[in-house]
Amino acid sequence: MLKRILVPTIFALFSHYSLAEDIQTTENSNSSENTAYISDSLFVYVHSGPGKNYRIVGSVDAGSQVAIMAGNENGFQQVIDDKGREVWVETQFVSSQPGLAHQLDELGQQLQQTQQALNDAQTDLPRLQQLNQDLQAENENLQQTIQRLEKAITDEKQKALSSEQAEQHLMLTYGGGVGIGGLLIGVVLTLFLSRRKRYDGWA
Predict the structure, then answer these.
(1) Domain 2-98 in CATH: superfamily?
(2) Which helix (H) or strand (E) holds 125?
(3) Which of 51, 67, 109, 114 has the CB geometry, 3.0–4.6 Å to 33, for a possible disulfide?
(4) E strands within 14-136?
(5) Which is it for strands 94-95 and 76-80: parallel, antiparallel or unpaired?
(6) Which residues of 8-30 are buried (b: 16+ CB within 10 A; e: fewer)?
(7) % residues pLDDT > 70 (the chain)
(8) Where are the transmembrane segments (predicted)?
(9) Helix (H, G, I), strand (E, B), or coil: what is residue 107?
């Protein structure tokens, strides 16, 4: 009975000590890490050394992200798991491609971002609609102003043309009056002079 209690306790103590040592080693080896993923099994046992004869120190869930270390022996790859432990796992369970769980998590994050963008667009839609209405109203006002200015310019041109025509008509009338007046004066003078000559002849 005592043996059944002591064995698990000793195993837990060794595991805790190994974990503390592995975390410290991890902090000193960040420069050599490369990202990889555990394949889509339910979970994978990890060992303290490069072989199944080394003690099992825990397990890694499927799809977990790990950091590749330099060690690679006997079909085992040295990694730092998602708990910060420096352990060994069978190479066949290490992949450069994200597992389904990791992909699902990324898709979930993308879905949240897309939903947030949609919510922002829906929130901003009334403001954009109001802005569109304001711009349309301003456009109509500008068109009306342009039409008024074009009409005013046309009216001014018409007034100038009418004034020019009236001035020309007045000049023609004045010139005609002067011409007729001169003609009448010439006739009167001719008659007057002819009569005077006649009177002089009688005398």
Answers:
(1) SH3 Domains (2.30.30.40)
(2) helix 100-202
(3) 67
(4) 34-38, 43-47, 56-61, 65-73, 76-80, 86-90, 94-95
(5) unpaired
(6) eeeeeeebeebbeebeeebeeee
(7) 75
(8) 171-193
(9) helix
Cα separation, 108 vs 68, whole angstroms:
26
Residues constituting the chain: 203
Task: State the Cα–Cα distance between residues 144 and 154, nearest whole angstrom.
Answer: 15
Residue 20 has pLDDT above 50, yes or no: no
Distance CA 65, CA 89 (A): 13
pLDDT tens by residue, 46-77 = 788 888 888 888 888 877 888 888 878 888 98
Q: Determine the Cα angle at 30 with ends 27 and 32, to 5°.
A: 140
